[in-house]
Amino acid sequence: MEPKIFQNKSFLLEPKTMVREMIHDLWNCRHLGWTLALRDIKAKYRSAWLGLAWAFLPPIATTLVFVVLQNQQMLKSEGMEVPYPIYTMVSIVLWQLFSESVVAPLQVVNGSRSLLSKILFPREALVVSAVVQVCFNFIIKLFLLFFVFAWWGILPTNGIIWLPLVLLALLALGILFGVLIVPIGVFYQDVIFSLSTVLMLLMFLTPVGYSIPSEGLLNEITQWNPMAILIQCGRELIFTGQSNAFIPMLAVGLITGFGLALGWVLYRATFPIAVERFSS
After folding, report:
1. SS3 breakdown of the chain: % helix, strand, coil, rounded to 5?
2. Crossing angle of helices 226-239/84-111, nearest 10°?
3. Quick check: 118 pLDDT over 50?
């Protein structure tokens, strides 16, 4: 094994060396990240009586809540090209891809506290593990969508070939926020306690179960809400084959990519402090 010398010197002072080490660590930790993800997935569903059904239940339950609200005319649903339940379930599955991406990094880090305090390994493995777990849950939800589409006799349009770009943007945006809150979340449990509440509030501010308003404060919020852009683009590509939000979606994805790179640097810079906290 090649010896590694630790020096009291910030890696930010040597950008080229920093980027080279980041890419090297990310590539070398891919197998470890996969192993950690499999461990967490097995532990999560093995101890649950309903097993993998827990991946289906959240989108089903949330869709039922929105359907009840829509039947009571509490939500606007004009201009929808497909039945409301399908419209809402697709939106919720897309939203949960984002929300689970936000939560996953902090969950993986907190679940690996003992490992971090004992073994030195590339910390990117934890993020890789989080990404694998989120993708696993999303693939399970895709089977639910296949069943729902088949039940209603609806076929996605050819625009679905562009859907991976939307999914990648949703995943990257969620991981970006997740990585940014890790340095704070490992020190303050308030972040963990408030995260679900904040995400729920954001979901209701995003047109997940209702049509995009044409005017008013909610319309202004929607126009500046990146999640609204991504979910709108994903829905329209599936149901109509084209979307007016396609170019804004690409812009959100590009900005997210730059933000993710900066978040990665922050993650590496602050993580040693978190490890010291775990060890104390």
Report:
1. 75, 0, 25
2. 130
3. yes
